[in-house]
């Protein structure tokens, strides 16, 4: 077993290109900047996912390439949304424009969101099973579906998005480790730690926003 893991590490290191290194670095930078609500997180995400889209396409992984194409679109959406955008109330009342604030969802809304994710996971997992297109079809589908959905929550600055990432990254580590990608699995371990950091940072900012709103 140890010999097989060592062989996998050596094989991945041989194919670890400078472009992949750049994509990993920009991906980590994206998470760190997102945790600090720095809008430049989204250009970093855009370039990182663009590189991964090409890497996965050349590596004959079309679904992962398509997923990163979606991430590119979400990066553009996040960049636009994190600029100073007027709320409907501000636009209607001609009041000062305020940036998008961190906010929370209620339990009912999260239940519906998770239910939708589970439904899509079993739907895509069933298709992957039918066409024998994945080593671990349901885990593969679940990571893909919830990653796409959580990227949307991140762009909308929903506080709980970081908790979703912690859970998703845990399953992603299992997926990549069991399918023979130990280096990628290690990268997602790092993402998991950064998700905890992001959740703490956003929780503190959310509390500060709440105190400010209460004082006003």
UniProtKB/TrEMBL annotation:
Gene Ontology molecular function: nicotinamide riboside transmembrane transporter activity
Top-level taxon of origin: Bacteria
Keywords: Cell membrane, Membrane, Transmembrane, Transmembrane helix, Transport
Matches recorded under Pfam families: NMN_transporter (PF04973)
Family of this protein: Belongs to the nicotinamide ribonucleoside (NR) uptake permease (TC 4.B.1) family.
Descriptive protein name: Nicotinamide riboside transporter PnuC
Protein localization: Cell membrane
One term under GO cellular component: plasma membrane
Segments passing through the bilayer: 12-32, 39-57, 63-82, 111-131, 137-155, 162-177, 183-200
Chain's role: Required for nicotinamide riboside transport across the inner membrane.
Taxonomic source organism: Thiomicrospira aerophila AL3
Membrane topology: Multi-pass membrane protein
């Amino acid at each position: 077993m140890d010999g097989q893991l060592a062989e996998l590490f050596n094989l991945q290191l041989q194919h670890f290109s400078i472009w992949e290194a750049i994509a990993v670095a920009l991906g980590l930078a994206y998470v760190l900047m997102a945790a600090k609500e720095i809008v430049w997180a989204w250009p970093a995400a855009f370039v990182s996912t663009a590189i991964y889209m090409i890497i996965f396409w050349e590596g004959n992984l079309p679904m992962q390439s398509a997923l990163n194409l979606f991430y590119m679109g979400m990066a553009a959406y996040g960049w636009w949304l994190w600029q100073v955008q007027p709320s409907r109330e501000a636009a209607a009342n001609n009041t000062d424009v305020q940036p998008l604030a961190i906010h929370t969802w209620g339990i009912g809304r999260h239940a519906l969101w998770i239910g939708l994710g589970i439904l899509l996971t079993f739907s895509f997992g069933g298709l992957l099973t039918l066409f024998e297109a994945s080593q671990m079809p349901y885990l593969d589908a679940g990571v893909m579906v919830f990653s796409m959905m959580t990227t949307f929550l991140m762009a909308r600055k929903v506080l709980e998005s970081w908790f979703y990432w912690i859970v998703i990254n845990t399953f992603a580590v299992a997926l990549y480790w069991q399918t023979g990608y130990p280096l990628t699995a290690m990268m997602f371990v790092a993402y998991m730690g950064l998700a905890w950091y992001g959740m703490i940072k956003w929780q503190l900012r959310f509390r500060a926003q709440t105190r400010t709103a209460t004082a006003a």
